[in-house]
Amino acid sequence: MSRPTTGSGLDALAAGARQAPGRGLPPVHLWNPERSGEIDIVIRPDGRWVHEGSVIGREALVRLFSTILRKDPDGYWLVTPVEKLRVTVEDAPFVAVRVDRVGEALRFETNVGDVIEAGPENAIRVETAPDGEPRPYVHIRRGLEALIARPVFYELAELAEDRGGQLGVASNGVWFPIGPAEAAVA
Asked: What's the whole-number mean pLDDT along residues 87-106?
């Protein structure tokens, strides 16, 4: 793998991302550029994107990069029609910062502006961290997930119902367990 050229790597990557035709999300799952390399971008568990040790402060740039992020079996990549660059994701690439009940759906919004409804295509799952705390996630698109922020998880817990000793929430006809019922009492 090659490294991108010098400090203009972010600008070149942004220019490549802007080559995507039309509106909406670019079809990164269809792009298989021959050039690949690495770029010193780390996506922190709190949703901050860091380049060469400095937080990327331009929200529009982070949003643009989030649209070309792809998860492959060998890791996370920023993909343009001409090259793909490996990035490091420390947990999930996005953070769910809001949830709303809209009819029968739970609608989530991420730190980069994605809005999705939980359901058959976008599952909610909860893992247990080594410290015993819940680590909840919601699927956003094509294998990419958002860590559900703690305040948002508390909102889910408020919406939860007990089914046979298991707390869970329903969205678009699917019930998602979020934890044991006795945990809510403690």
From this structure: 97
What tokens appear for 183 in the block? 């945990």
From the options 3.40.50.12780, 3.30.300.30, 3.40.50.1260, 3.10.540.10, give the CATH code of 9-89.
Answer: 3.10.540.10
Residue pair 94/140 in contact (Cβ under 8 Å)? The answer is yes
Angstrom distance (rounded) from CA 2 to CA 173: 46
Q: Is 58 helix (H, G, I), strand (E, B) or coil?
A: coil
User: What is the arrangement of strands in the sheet containing 174-180, beginning at the earlier edge strand?
Assistant: 161-163, 166-171, 174-180
DSSP track, 41-70: EEE-TTS-EEETTEE---HHHHHHHHHTEE
Decide if pLDDT at 178 tops 80. yes
Phi, psi of 159 (to 5 degrees): -85, -10
**Burial per residue of 42-74, b for 16 or more beta-carbon CB atoms within 10 angstroms, e otherwise:** ebeeebebebeeeebeeeebbebbbbbbbbeee
Rounded to whole angstroms, the Cα distance separating 92 from 76 reads 10
Residues forming beta bridges with residue 107, ordered by sequence position:
100, 117
Question: How many secondary structure helices (H) and strands (E) does the chain include?
Answer: 4, 15
Q: What is the pLDDT of residues 20-33, one digit of tens each?
A: 444 578 999 999 99
Which run of H or of E encompasses 15? helix 9-17
- For tokens 């599952």, name the residue: 123
